[in-house]
Specification:
The structure holds 2 protein chains of 2 kinds. Chain A is of the alpha/beta class. Chain A has 22 helices and 32 strands. A 7-stranded mixed β-sheet of chain A has the order 3-5-1-12-9-10-11, sandwiched between helices. A 7-stranded mixed β-sheet of chain A has the order 30-8-13-14-15-7-32, sandwiched between helices. In chain A, α6 packs across α7. In chain B, α2 runs antiparallel to α5. By secondary structure, chain B is an alpha+beta fold. Classes of the chains: A alpha/beta, B alpha+beta.
Chain lengths: 868, 179
């Protein structure tokens, strides 16, 4: 058995002796479970929330980027002579000023703030200019003349496979394939051999983008000597902090990153971006504040949105409808840079197992580099695509077996607290309740298959992480930290690095602290997302904030409560564990002779400050270890998983193919809704975004005519042409919050930001089939696709529209991982051999290793293997 | 005035405010950059998203498509003028209470558009609200909480009592767990 090559697992959270997990007296909760107004609600409706572009500073200059107009080429020359003559021009930067590469993942640091020599997509930034006004900066940017030598462009996964040279990047697994993954859990062949029926289907999920209403903006202010403060619309101030330190060559302690309230993120502000680094560099060079605001077209170029994915699914089932084996292949079109792509690739396979019992599972995936804006994480990160395929295929299986799709799913659900074939540790699973809620609410059992032509119902499910189990860079430190400062004023100052992107994280933080300490929300002062002042929280991605920050907040608040209780208990001569914190008081509620003997919260703090000195507590959270130890096991683990089920009713016109959603029923296993009205807002927002993706949203590209350079350009870089649903497109939504408190979460809470999107797309596709008998195996589902499927049906063919082939590709040697049921230990049995066989490329998998480094590693591995 | 520049006294939120600005600048730019009223946001600067909506003589317009120089003698209302002293306008109150402002970036444009609607039609139907707001994109909410907030504000403005329905605050009751 090979020993794991991973570094040590993070240490488990150390139990704190001060921590008293059970309150002495059960009292009804004041804030948890209450639909209170969000703590930033007033600022949002008065227009006083400060977004990054709302900040101005004395002597502030404006910066604009010069972006490539060709999709692939080398930079021959950059001429600033005309730009320099623009009145107000202050200075410029080129790739020579920012030579250090960066990237969100340590394994793909392939970006530069400004391209040093090569451009890889239309929109890649090559230069920056600063001027006294935004108008002048814009004019100067337009006056910069860049000359290029064009290189062949790659537009698709198929082209990337067939065009290994020239490479878009000089690293990656194989030619223009950035990443190749192949892993097998359990005896897949035996599983298929034992199946009564085997189903094979192809699906395609078009890419789409986040389209946050706020365009990205950054303001950098130089301070003292070699210090800079950067305000930015970022979901991940900590990761931006690290990227700035690396590229600027400054100690991180001299850089302060403050994430402003984001005007929407959805994953699109999770990478460190060119413009953020450029603003900081420009401010440091010019010695004055520098602001950069992207215009809408540039936001489309930043992208990092949903990967276009082609999928092949093969599923074996018994005649009763039990899955015997499942094989998923995915091909991701990654765009021009790594971004989160390695993780995205693994995510297309990782969560396939967390809803239905799959004794044997194989996943093969590739991610290609293409000359398009880089793809990355969007709500659901890598999982909506295979979820669409799986849930549509299950609908086909149910029809073929003559079963109701709800009953088919209910008899194959995963067990709570089980470990999946790919070694993910599950905890609470209330997917059965979710299915029953939407099935009963919609009348699915009676109405499915029985509605008149043109009306249909579709069911689908989904599941998502409550935070990625591992941080983006390897470390043993907490993933979230919260610090409290309490003084004689009675004010509780709460410090946390979390970033409010609209999801309501500030309100989760405030609600938990106020609940534990028994104070009002207005007794709190929040200070968040400031790398100088707040403890690190990794950011608003992977639906991690409620669970991780919430647990850290709970720990910090409980420690503060225990300190105060000790001081008050001594003063009142009452055992500390009998004291209750509620209604802005600390009192003994269990003494019938002297009911509610106690102090105001402020007096209680005064007693504690007098007893212990200056009061402060901290809390931190590290997720539990995952049982998976194989290479790639780092993607997929989570402290627990949320579950969703949805039924969508549609109306389809068989004459035109036009369809519309009529009603959506959605149930979400949230563990516990900390604030139900805000949770419903997240559910409805997820439903909306899922509907947008299945109805109309697509980040598509086209080639300019040959006489106009034949360049590969964005089809819709504007909000008018990139269609998204309006008030008029949104159907009624019935939301069920399914509460089954999970011990992993604070007060039992699980995520709600991303999961509810997942079932929407396949539920719509299944509903269209129920309505008119047409299968559209791709999204978005345009009317002409419905019509083509219906035409095929009329001609006696398969009533289907969708991809007809999967790219021919070698996924490399398959990692063999015995499942828990097979008595495995979470490792692969062929980890060394597969690395060695796949040779240099295998060793260099997803890393920036040069050829020499790869060969050195291969030699070391061979030696190690021979020594055994 | 040098060529290419305009000076104007604006009537904004009932106050007279003077500014000198490049004549090609939009009302959006002058509000945010010259008049220190950054509550009005920008999402596209091309008239596509509705984020920058303000009221001019009571009608919602896209401030990114209006020239500031055209505003002579016109009454401009922005989100900063919506509250009365320290008291929120009913639209602000219900939007805040229902979480109808999530990231809050589209909110000022939606508030101003909704205010114009309720001035013209104090009892709009769900369909009338959606039609009036169809030019305002929101990426966070799925729109329902906004519609429910506007319905609540309309009731309050008509002098009626209004409490949010249980389903709006807590969701639908799980079948089989009623009562």
């Amino acid at each position: 058995m090979a020993e794991p090559l991973r570094k040590e697992d993070p240490i488990d959270l150390i139990e704190d002796p001060l921590l008293d997990p059970e309150p002495a007296t059960e009292r009804p909760l004041r804030w948890i479970g209450t639909p209170f107004r969000r703590v930033d609600g007033r600022a949002k409706v008065t227009g006083t929330t400060k977004f990054a572009d709302d900040l101005t500073f004395p002597r502030m200059c404006h910066v604009k980027l010069v972006r490539s107009r060709i999709p692939h080429g080398t930079i021959r020359s950059i001429d600033f002579s005309a730009a320099e003559k623009i009145p107000g021009y202050l200075g410029c930067l080129t790739g020579a000023d920012t030579p250090i590469p960066f990237g969100i993942l340590p394994v793909s640091m392939d970006e530069h703030a400004l391209c040093p020599d090569r451009v890889r997509f239309v929109g890649d930034p090559v230069a920056a200019v600063a001027a006294t006004t935004e108008d002048a900066a814009y004019e100067a940017a337009l006056a910069v003349i860049v000359e290029y030598d064009s290189l062949p462009t790659i537009a698709s996964v198929e082209q990337a496979i067939s065009t290994p040279e020239p490479r878009i990047h000089d690293y990656g697994d194989d030619g223009n394939l950035h990443k190749k993954v192949s892993m097998r859990f359990g005896d897949v062949e035996a599983g298929f051999a034992a199946a009564d029926r085997i189903f094979e289907d192809l699906f395609f999920y078009e890419g789409n983008t986040h389209l946050p209403m706020e365009q990205h903006a950054t303001v950098a202010v130089p301070e003292d000597d070699d210090r800079v403060t950067v305000w930015s619309s970022t979901q991940t101030p900590h990761y931006l902090h690290r990227a700035l330190a690396k590229v600027l060559g400054l100690p991180a302690s001299r850089i302060r990153v403050i994430a402003c309230s984001n005007g929407g993120g959805f994953g699109g502000k999770s990478d460190p971006f060119n413009h953020e680094i450029v603003a900081a560099k420009m401010a440091l060079i010019l010695g004055r504040p520098a602001k950069i605001v992207l215009h809408r077209e540039e936001v489309f170029y930043c992208h990092r949105g949903r990967h276009p994915v082609t999928m092949r699914l093969k599923t074996g089932v018994t005649k009763e409808g039990k899955i015997t084996a499942h094989h998923l292949e995915t091909a991701l079109d990654g765009g021009a840079y790594g971004s989160y792509g390695v993780a995205s690739t693994y995510y297309t396979g990782a969560l396939e197992t967390v809803t239905y019992d799959m004794p044997a599972y194989q996943f093969d995936g590739i991610r290609a580099f293409t000359n398009k804006p880089p793809c990355g994480p969007k709500r659901g990160h890598g999982t909506p695509q295979p979820r669409f395929g799986l849930e549509v295929q299950l609908d086909k299986i149910a029809v073929a077996l003559g079963q109701n799709p709800a009953d088919l799913r209910l008899q194959m659900l995963v067990a709570p607290e089980s470990i999946t074939a790919n070694w993910l540790q599950l905890h609470s699973v209330s997917l059965d309740r979710c299915i029953e809620a939407v099935v009963t609410g919609s009348g699915y059992r009676e109405r499915w298959g029985n509605l008149p032509e043109g009306r249909g119902l579709g069911l689908a499910c989904g599941s998502y992480l409550c935070g990625a189990g591992l941080p983006i860079y390897w470390n043993h430190m907490p993933q979230s930290g919260v610090q409290l400062k309490i003084d004689r004023s009675g004010c509780v100052a709460v410090f946390c690095g979390e970033a409010e992107i609209g999801q309501g994280s500030d309100s989760v933080l405030a609600g938990i602290v106020a609940e534990v300490l028994g104070v009002d929300l207005s007794d709190l002062r929040l200070c968040v997302a400031d790398t100088d002042l707040t403890p690190v929280d990794l950011g608003s991605y992977s639906s991690r904030v409620t669970l991780m920050m919430g647990n850290a907040a709970l720990q910090a608040a409980e420690r503060a409560r225990d300190l105060i209780a000790k001081a008050v208990g001594d003063q009142l001569e009452v055992p500390a564990d009998r004291l209750v914190f509620a209604e802005r008081r600390v009192f003994d509620a269990s003494d019938p002779s002297n009911p509610e003997k106690g102090l105001t919260f402020q007096d209680a703090v005064i007693a504690a400050e007098a007893r212990f000195g200056t009061l402060g507590t901290v809390g931190s959270y590290i997720p539990p270890r995952s049982p998976g130890k194989y290479r790639g096991a780092g993607v997929g683990p989570s402290p627990t998983y949320s579950y969703s089920a949805s039924v969508v009713e549609v109306e389809v016109d068989p004459q035109t193919g036009l369809w519309r959603p009529v009603h959506v029923w959605i149930a979400h296993d949230i563990g516990r809704a900390l604030n139900p009205v805000l949770a419903i807002g997240q559910v409805e927002g997820g439903v909306y975004m899922g509907l947008g993706e299945v109805m109309m949203e697509e980040q598509a590209f086209r080639r300019l005519p040959r006489h106009l350079s034949n360049a590969l350009v964005h089809k819709f870089p504007s909000m008018l042409e990139y269609k998204s649903p309006t008030f008029l497109d949104m159907p009624p939504v019935t939301t069920y919050l399914i509460e089954d408190p999970d011990p992993q979460g604070p007060y039992g809470a699980k995520e709600v930001g991303q999961g509810p999107l997942l079932p929407i797309l396949p539920a719509v596709a299944n509903a269209i089939y129920d309505a008119v008998g047409a299968r559209v195996d791709q999204v978005p589902i345009h009317p002409h696709m419905v019509l083509k499927a219906l035409d095929a049906k009329k001609k006696g063919g398969e009533p289907r529209y969708g991809p007809k082939s999967f790219p021919e590709v070698d996924f490399g040697e398959t990692l063999i991982v015995p499942t828990p049921a097979q008595g495995g230990n979470g490792t692969a049995i062929n980890e060394f051999r597969s690395k060695l066989r796949s040779g240099m490329r295998g060793v260099a998998t997803g890393t920036m290793s040069t050829r020499d480094e790869a060969l050195r590693q291969k030699k070391a591995l061979t030696t190690k293997l021979e020594d055994r | 005035m040098p060529p290419g520049w305009t000076s104007l006294i604006f009537d904004v939120n009932g106050e007279s405010r003077a500014a000198i600005f490049p004549t090609h600048h939009t009302l959006l730019e002058v509000l945010r950059e010259e008049l220190a009223l950054p509550g009005t946001k920008h999402g596209c600067e091309l008239g596509e998203c509705g984020t920058c909506a303000v009221l001019v003589d009571g009608r919602p317009i896209l401030s990114c498509l209006a020239l500031a120089a055209d505003m002579k003698g016109k009454k401009i209302e922005t989100v900063e003028g919506l509250q009365n002293g320290n008291t929120l306008h009913p639209l602000q109150q219900t939007m805040a209470d229902l979480g109808a402002a999530q990231c809050g970036y589209c909110t000022p444009g939606i508030l101003m558009t909704a205010k114009a609607l309720l001035t013209e039609n104090p009892s709009p139907t769900d369909g009338e609200i959606r039609a009036a707001l169809a030019g305002n994109l929101c990426r966070c909410t799925g729109y329902h909480k906004i519609v429910e907030a506007i319905e609540g504000a309309a009731a309050l403005l008509r002098g009626e009592d209004w409490v949010a329905p249980r389903e709006v605050l807590y969701g639908a009751v799980e079948p089989g767990r009623e009562g």
